Amino acid sequence: MNFNLTHRPRRIRNNPSLRELVKEQQLNHNDLVLPVFIADQADVPQNIESMPEVFRWPINLITSKIKECQDLGINTFAIFPHIDPSKRDSQGTEFLNPDSLAYQAAKEIKHSNKEVTLIGDLALDPYTSHGHDGIINNDKIVNNDATVKILAQGAILAAESGYDLVAPSDMMDGRINVIRNNLDKNNFQNTGILAYSAKFSSAYYGPFRDAIGSKQKNIIDKSTYQLSPSNFREAKRELELDFNEGADILMIKPAEPYLDVISYAKNNFNIPIAAFQVSGEYSRIWAAHLNGWLDLDACANESILSIKRAGADFILSYFAERIAKTF
Ligand code: PBG
Questions:
Q1: Which domain holds residue 163?
Q2: How many CB atoms are closer than 10 A to CB 3?
Q3: pTM score > 0.85 for this model?
């Protein structure tokens, strides 16, 4: 028997080419940014146990690694240094050393390769002995304004060493404004700011803290500066503040658990929207794959596609290289 249905949505799913024709989203390499870890004093790539297939790269191999990714069509990289523990202190002093690892890496990469786009993270956690993103008061609370002052100085070192975008990932109040003013004052009008605007206090950052060596005995609580996972309205306020303070790109992080926030940002701000699929989002898919429970590439692809569909113009993902190989 046949119903006389007016609407049969299945008609446009009848065969593969028809399905391709009506496809609403297609991932391509311009959607992807690869986060890259840099190793201090190493000659060979270092394994990160909680992040399969992700390595810390020694400076002497970084240029060829970047080139390899560019051959796959990935042209933008977010650099994260693993600072030697002996160089970490309570003030994160090493962040303002012009020869520090993250600045060295950018100089090295840009020296032979002007085409690449580099994103330099601005936060103190790779440099502090306590693993917080700023300097802490006696009451153990991160000091907002003192930290912002240091970040604005670091922004100059990052711009000088060749970073195209600086990316404050600290969630201090007012930092976009202060960083913008300092960049302008130092003639870096063309260095952009990719703002980690809605950065949630997430349990998914664990593997990243292994990667940069900032993990402490007890889980670090960053909830006096990062957003509560329950607060959507507060996230909107943070996005608005960063937009008004002059951010060039707004970022949401983590990505897949916060698709509502990505979608809101896309619909309300006429500047690019980025999303960071963080370490734990990567590792959970890998872990299920290693257990034989999920298909790695299919899940990686579906997760990144969802983030794009929600509204991200581009996505920072540790899967970037792997996914690019499938295009
Ligand atoms: C810290 C920073 C973090 C990440 C990027 N920058 C972690 C944190 O806030 O503790 C997380 C990235 C990831 O998990 O992949 N400034």
A1: 25-324
A2: 6
A3: yes
